[in-house]
Amino acid sequence: MSRQLASKWLKTAALLKYPVAAVHIPQTMAFNARNLQLMLGRYGMVYIKPIVGGGGYGVIRVSTSGGSYRYTHMKVTRSFTNYGQMYRSLMRVKAKRRYLIQQGIHLATIQGRPVDYRVKVVKTERGWVFRAVVGRLARPGLCVTNLSKGGTMLSGRRALQLSLPHISSRHKRREMRALTLTCTRIMEVQFPGVGQLGFDYGLDHSGKIWILEVNTRPQ
Description:
It contains 6 helices and 12 strands. With 219 residues, the chain is α+β, with helices and mostly antiparallel strands. The strands form 2 sheets. The protein has a 6-stranded antiparallel beta sheet with strand order 1-6-2-3-4-5, sandwiched between helices. Strands 7, 8, 9, 10, 11 and 12 form a 6-stranded antiparallel beta sheet that branches. Helix 5 packs across helix 6. The two termini are 16 Å apart. 28% of the residues are buried. Helices cover 30% and strands 34% of the residues. The radius of gyration is 17 Å and the shape is globular.
Protein backbone atom coordinates (compact mmCIF):
# COMPACT_ATOMS: atom_id res chain seq x y z
CA MET A 1 0.00 0.00 0.00
CA SER A 2 1.57 3.29 -1.11
CA ARG A 3 1.86 5.97 1.56
CA GLN A 4 -0.32 9.02 0.97
CA LEU A 5 0.21 12.56 2.25
CA ALA A 6 -2.61 15.06 1.95
CA SER A 7 -0.88 18.18 3.30
CA LYS A 8 0.66 20.46 0.65
CA TRP A 9 2.49 22.20 3.49
CA LEU A 10 4.33 19.03 4.63
CA LYS A 11 5.44 18.14 1.10
CA THR A 12 6.61 21.68 0.33
CA ALA A 13 8.53 21.88 3.63
CA ALA A 14 10.27 18.56 2.89
CA LEU A 15 11.54 19.74 -0.50
CA LEU A 16 12.61 23.14 0.86
CA LYS A 17 15.22 21.41 3.04
CA TYR A 18 17.23 20.62 -0.10
CA PRO A 19 18.68 23.56 -2.10
CA VAL A 20 18.58 21.56 -5.36
CA ALA A 21 14.77 21.45 -5.06
CA ALA A 22 14.19 24.70 -3.14
CA VAL A 23 15.30 26.89 -6.08
CA HIS A 24 12.32 25.53 -8.04
CA ILE A 25 9.69 26.18 -5.36
CA PRO A 26 7.62 29.40 -5.39
CA GLN A 27 7.68 31.23 -2.07
CA THR A 28 4.96 29.81 0.17
CA MET A 29 3.43 31.20 3.38
CA ALA A 30 0.53 30.41 5.68
CA PHE A 31 -2.65 32.23 4.71
CA ASN A 32 -3.62 35.23 6.82
CA ALA A 33 -4.41 38.90 6.14
CA ARG A 34 -0.89 40.15 6.88
CA ASN A 35 0.91 37.48 4.83
CA LEU A 36 -1.42 37.95 1.87
CA GLN A 37 -0.78 41.70 1.80
CA LEU A 38 2.97 41.09 2.14
CA MET A 39 3.05 38.55 -0.71
CA LEU A 40 0.93 40.76 -2.98
CA GLY A 41 3.32 43.65 -2.35
CA ARG A 42 6.25 41.42 -3.23
CA TYR A 43 4.90 39.55 -6.27
CA GLY A 44 1.79 41.38 -7.50
CA MET A 45 0.00 38.06 -8.03
CA VAL A 46 -0.40 34.99 -5.82
CA TYR A 47 -2.49 31.84 -5.57
CA ILE A 48 -4.21 30.76 -2.40
CA LYS A 49 -4.78 27.02 -2.12
CA PRO A 50 -6.35 24.72 0.47
CA ILE A 51 -3.57 22.92 2.38
CA VAL A 52 -5.53 19.69 1.92
CA GLY A 53 -7.36 19.23 -1.37
CA GLY A 54 -6.88 18.48 -5.05
CA GLY A 55 -8.38 18.81 -8.49
CA GLY A 56 -8.00 22.59 -8.43
CA TYR A 57 -10.80 22.81 -5.85
CA GLY A 58 -10.77 26.05 -3.86
CA VAL A 59 -7.81 27.62 -5.70
CA ILE A 60 -8.11 31.42 -5.99
CA ARG A 61 -5.83 33.82 -7.86
CA VAL A 62 -5.34 37.19 -6.13
CA SER A 63 -3.57 40.17 -7.71
CA THR A 64 -2.95 43.87 -7.31
CA SER A 65 -1.92 46.67 -9.67
CA GLY A 66 -2.25 50.43 -9.64
CA GLY A 67 -3.63 50.42 -6.09
CA SER A 68 -6.61 48.17 -6.89
CA TYR A 69 -7.09 44.51 -5.93
CA ARG A 70 -8.83 41.62 -7.61
CA TYR A 71 -9.35 37.92 -7.23
CA THR A 72 -10.48 35.19 -9.61
CA HIS A 73 -12.44 32.23 -8.28
CA MET A 74 -13.48 29.78 -11.00
CA LYS A 75 -14.62 32.05 -13.86
CA VAL A 76 -15.63 35.02 -11.70
CA THR A 77 -13.24 37.97 -11.21
CA ARG A 78 -14.05 40.65 -8.65
CA SER A 79 -12.24 43.99 -8.33
CA PHE A 80 -11.87 46.26 -5.29
CA THR A 81 -10.49 49.71 -4.56
CA ASN A 82 -8.73 48.71 -1.33
CA TYR A 83 -7.20 45.69 0.36
CA GLY A 84 -9.68 45.50 3.25
CA GLN A 85 -12.68 45.26 0.91
CA MET A 86 -11.00 42.56 -1.14
CA TYR A 87 -9.96 40.52 1.89
CA ARG A 88 -13.44 40.57 3.45
CA SER A 89 -15.00 39.40 0.18
CA LEU A 90 -12.33 36.73 -0.24
CA MET A 91 -13.07 35.33 3.21
CA ARG A 92 -16.71 34.89 2.19
CA VAL A 93 -15.96 32.87 -0.96
CA LYS A 94 -13.00 30.72 0.10
CA ALA A 95 -13.65 27.24 1.42
CA LYS A 96 -13.85 26.79 5.20
CA ARG A 97 -10.48 25.14 5.53
CA ARG A 98 -6.82 26.05 6.08
CA TYR A 99 -5.07 27.69 3.14
CA LEU A 100 -1.54 28.56 2.07
CA ILE A 101 -0.36 31.42 -0.17
CA GLN A 102 1.92 30.62 -3.10
CA GLN A 103 3.93 33.12 -5.14
CA GLY A 104 2.16 33.53 -8.47
CA ILE A 105 4.08 32.23 -11.47
CA HIS A 106 3.17 33.76 -14.83
CA LEU A 107 2.94 30.51 -16.76
CA ALA A 108 3.75 30.18 -20.44
CA THR A 109 0.50 30.05 -22.41
CA ILE A 110 -1.06 28.62 -25.55
CA GLN A 111 -3.42 31.15 -27.19
CA GLY A 112 -3.58 33.03 -23.87
CA ARG A 113 -4.47 29.91 -21.85
CA PRO A 114 -1.99 28.83 -19.13
CA VAL A 115 -0.39 25.39 -19.44
CA ASP A 116 1.34 23.27 -16.81
CA TYR A 117 2.69 19.72 -16.65
CA ARG A 118 2.01 16.53 -14.71
CA VAL A 119 4.88 14.06 -14.41
CA LYS A 120 3.87 10.78 -12.77
CA VAL A 121 6.28 8.17 -11.40
CA VAL A 122 5.59 4.84 -9.66
CA LYS A 123 7.86 2.49 -7.73
CA THR A 124 8.26 -1.02 -9.12
CA GLU A 125 10.63 -3.91 -8.40
CA ARG A 126 13.00 -2.26 -10.88
CA GLY A 127 12.87 1.06 -9.06
CA TRP A 128 11.04 4.26 -9.98
CA VAL A 129 9.64 4.41 -13.51
CA PHE A 130 7.92 7.21 -15.44
CA ARG A 131 4.26 6.63 -16.21
CA ALA A 132 3.34 9.97 -17.81
CA VAL A 133 4.70 13.35 -18.86
CA VAL A 134 1.74 15.40 -20.06
CA GLY A 135 0.74 19.02 -20.52
CA ARG A 136 -2.54 20.38 -19.15
CA LEU A 137 -4.08 23.37 -20.91
CA ALA A 138 -6.54 25.48 -18.92
CA ARG A 139 -10.11 25.79 -20.12
CA PRO A 140 -10.70 29.27 -21.61
CA GLY A 141 -11.29 31.80 -18.83
CA LEU A 142 -9.92 29.63 -16.00
CA CYS A 143 -6.63 30.01 -14.14
CA VAL A 144 -6.49 26.31 -13.09
CA THR A 145 -5.48 23.62 -15.59
CA ASN A 146 -6.98 20.55 -13.89
CA LEU A 147 -8.69 18.15 -16.28
CA SER A 148 -11.55 17.86 -13.76
CA LYS A 149 -12.13 21.60 -14.32
CA GLY A 150 -12.30 21.28 -18.10
CA GLY A 151 -8.57 21.39 -18.87
CA THR A 152 -7.24 19.72 -22.04
CA MET A 153 -4.48 17.10 -21.95
CA LEU A 154 -1.62 17.39 -24.45
CA SER A 155 1.60 15.44 -24.82
CA GLY A 156 4.44 17.08 -22.90
CA ARG A 157 6.31 17.62 -26.16
CA ARG A 158 3.36 19.31 -27.88
CA ALA A 159 2.61 21.56 -24.91
CA LEU A 160 6.24 22.72 -24.77
CA GLN A 161 6.45 23.32 -28.52
CA LEU A 162 3.28 25.42 -28.56
CA SER A 163 3.90 27.42 -25.36
CA LEU A 164 7.69 27.93 -25.58
CA PRO A 165 8.57 27.58 -29.29
CA HIS A 166 11.96 29.28 -28.78
CA ILE A 167 13.15 26.60 -26.31
CA SER A 168 14.17 23.00 -27.10
CA SER A 169 11.30 20.79 -25.95
CA ARG A 170 13.63 17.77 -25.80
CA HIS A 171 16.07 19.57 -23.52
CA LYS A 172 13.25 20.85 -21.28
CA ARG A 173 11.65 17.38 -20.98
CA ARG A 174 15.03 15.95 -20.02
CA GLU A 175 15.42 18.69 -17.37
CA MET A 176 11.91 17.94 -16.04
CA ARG A 177 12.69 14.22 -15.75
CA ALA A 178 16.00 14.89 -13.95
CA LEU A 179 14.27 17.19 -11.46
CA THR A 180 11.55 14.57 -10.94
CA LEU A 181 14.11 11.87 -10.08
CA THR A 182 15.91 14.24 -7.68
CA CYS A 183 12.68 15.19 -5.90
CA THR A 184 11.48 11.58 -5.84
CA ARG A 185 14.64 10.56 -3.95
CA ILE A 186 14.03 13.41 -1.48
CA MET A 187 10.39 12.41 -0.96
CA GLU A 188 11.38 8.79 -0.40
CA VAL A 189 13.90 9.80 2.27
CA GLN A 190 11.45 12.18 3.96
CA PHE A 191 8.38 9.93 3.68
CA PRO A 192 9.39 6.23 3.61
CA GLY A 193 6.73 4.06 2.02
CA VAL A 194 5.63 6.46 -0.70
CA GLY A 195 5.05 4.43 -3.86
CA GLN A 196 3.66 6.85 -6.45
CA LEU A 197 4.14 10.56 -7.03
CA GLY A 198 2.69 13.15 -9.36
CA PHE A 199 4.69 16.36 -9.81
CA ASP A 200 2.87 19.43 -11.12
CA TYR A 201 5.31 21.76 -12.86
CA GLY A 202 4.79 25.22 -14.26
CA LEU A 203 7.17 26.84 -16.73
CA ASP A 204 7.41 30.61 -16.88
CA HIS A 205 8.11 32.56 -20.08
CA SER A 206 11.87 32.12 -19.65
CA GLY A 207 11.45 28.33 -19.41
CA LYS A 208 12.31 28.03 -15.72
CA ILE A 209 10.67 24.99 -14.12
CA TRP A 210 8.65 25.66 -10.97
CA ILE A 211 7.32 22.94 -8.67
CA LEU A 212 3.68 23.92 -8.13
CA GLU A 213 2.57 20.84 -6.22
CA VAL A 214 3.46 17.23 -5.36
CA ASN A 215 0.73 14.58 -5.19
CA THR A 216 1.02 11.20 -3.50
CA ARG A 217 -2.24 10.03 -5.06
CA PRO A 218 -1.95 11.37 -8.62
CA GLN A 219 -4.96 10.94 -10.91
